Amino acid sequence: MQRFGWICFESPLAQEHNPLFSLLKNTTHSLKVQKIESESDDFQVLSINLEWRKGKANPFMSSIRAKLRTKAMSLNIIHDKDGLPKIILTEPTGSSAEVLLYGGQVISWKNERREELLFMSSKAFWKPPKAIRGGIPVCFPQFGNLGSLEQHGFARNRMWSLDNDPSPLPPANNQSSVDLVLKSTEEDLKTSPRGFELRLRICLSAGKLTLIPRVRNVDSKSFSFTFALRNYLSVSDISEVRVEGLETLDYLDNLMRKERFTEQADAITFDGEMDRVYLSTPTKIAIIDHEKKRTFELRKDGMPDSVVWNPWDKKAKAMPDLGDEDYKTMLCVDSAAIETPIILKPFEEWKGRQELSTVSSSYCSGQLDPRQFVMLHMEIKRIKKQTALLYFVVFLSFFAPSFASHGGSGWPGKSANIIPRQQLSGNKKLRLAVPQKSGWFSELVNINRNLQTNATIISGFCIDVFRAAIEEFDYQVDYEFIPFVNATGQCNGTYTELIDQIFFQNYDGAVGDVTITENRSLHVDFTLPYTEVGVGMISGYQVLPFFVSNSMWIFLKPLTTDLLLSSAAFLS
Ligand SMILES: O=P(O)(O)OC[C@H]1O[C@H](O)[C@H](O)[C@@H](O)[C@@H]1O
Question: Which of 345 and 42 is assigned the larger pLDDT?
Fold first, then answer.
């Protein structure tokens, strides 16, 4: 059992009423444990020889009994049913993680409600030297087949040890973190001819699992490696999952001979096998599980790439350690350093970091996820300005069907640039981009191609509102709707790119459910959201048709008692 602790003296020598105490206070001392007298889960009682020194005077020797108190519960290494040693990490809110010495692999991470957050294959092999399919395997010193070593390197099928000297990290001295180490063997020096030390700190805290990998070159020659923490995330149904943060990035497609492409989708969704190495990814990626109403947030540092992998049905069937249906409930989103291998000079060290946490699904990349909310509307004629502003901002950042047009900056309704009459009338025909929806909220904008007549029909709530608004003008406005689609009929980029196209004057405006964000409104003007002046509110998603609630009072739920009372006061 590993012990960490500090010493509280039982010897009367160390007590303040002892005349020797003041004498000893400013001494230095060295200490040698003679024997462990007794031991319990929380304490060890030790016989200690102490040598006290003060200046140049002769040392003062003392033999005392000391009680060593473990600062927190000790790390427990237990053997699981397959005989593999594992460490269980726990923390006060009740979440837990299990870490195998084999592979240095996290194999379980449960939240405070004891729900498993990591995927583990129903047919995983639990026998070395096979890798274990699930949890968080460490791919080192090679990712995939990018080298002469076995697939994903050997770290995931080696027995690691507890690292008792994790310097320069402060010692992990509680039961919610563990330091592991894997050192190169003689054998490794033959196949991958460099000496290394791979360390991994795994820390569990409320709602968060942090992994800090470090690699030290202990050789006299440079050492180069690729690396990945492969996160097998547990998801409800892969078809309901969306990954945000990788849009517009370049990726190497492992299913297309590692060819380089640029991501076109607004967010990554899954309807078939995927095996991509996204390059130079942001430090934060969101994996949104709509069905479970859970969002994983992956934050990383020192690992610029991210692999997104799901084998889908055919490959799953061909994999002996993956259940035929398992692909539906897993998704790998890795923190990785692949495109540019890490090169360490002799005795240099590399350090990475990844934090996995879960947040409520209402959150995605800083905006609310429209699929999880129903927007309600309540008219309040007079309300404190501040409160109104607060709700207004919530409303805007949620979802604001809008017309965007170029030429100004500022929040809706505050634009200094009112589109001049001559710009809207005259000879100019406004070119208005209409985004292609990928299945959601097609009630708002819908681009339909009639295959027989080849005509494109553009319809939906936003279009109707736009037409109605234009009819209100007392002069003629010519316009045409232009679908913002690519050659394959899909949306020709993200909504931000659509806004950019307006800014670059490739369109005169856009009509659609473009979310108003601060960033976008720096480039274009937005209309006010299509509501009467009032307060927009959000409430948890109901299993009811869009915009319909089963309770007329549900709109009261997001309001605090205070706000309700003050609203009532202002309304009366
Ligand atoms: O089966 P494993 O060795 O764990 O690898 C799982 C997958 O990892 C990577 O994403 C590779 O590109 C795939 O080709 C491989 O199938």
Answer: 345
Distance 352 CA to ligand 1 centre (A): 22
Of residues 191 and 248, the one with the higher pLDDT is 248
- Residue 196: beta bridge partners? 217
pTM: 0.57
Asked if ipTM goes beyond 0.85, one says yes
The topology (CATH level 3) of 401-528 is D-Maltodextrin-Binding Protein; domain 2 (3.40.190)
Q: How far separated are the first and last CA of the chain, in Å rounded? A: 68
- Whole-number Å distance, alpha carbon 278 to ligand 1 midpoint, is 15
* Interval 248-283: pLDDT, tens: 999 999 999 999 999 998 889 999 999 999 999 999
Q: Please give the distance, rounded to the nearest whole angstrom, from the Cα atom of residue 326 to the centre of ligand 1.
A: 15
Residue 496 has pLDDT above 50, yes or no: yes
Separation between Cα atoms, residue 88 and residue 108, nearest integer Å: 9
CA distances in angstroms from 332 to 104, 128, 324, 526, listed in the order given = 18, 22, 17, 38
Q: What is the pLDDT, as a whole number, of residue 1? A: 32
Distance CA 211, CA 260 (A): 29
Among all chains, which residue has been given the structure tokens 């996995």?
356
Q: Which CATH number fits domain 77-364: 3.40.50.720, 3.90.245.10, 2.70.98.10, 1.10.287.470?
A: 2.70.98.10
Q: Which of 130, 254, 339 to mutate to test the pocket of ligand 1 (most atoms within 8 A of CB)?
A: 254
Residues of the chain with CATH 3.40.190: 401-528
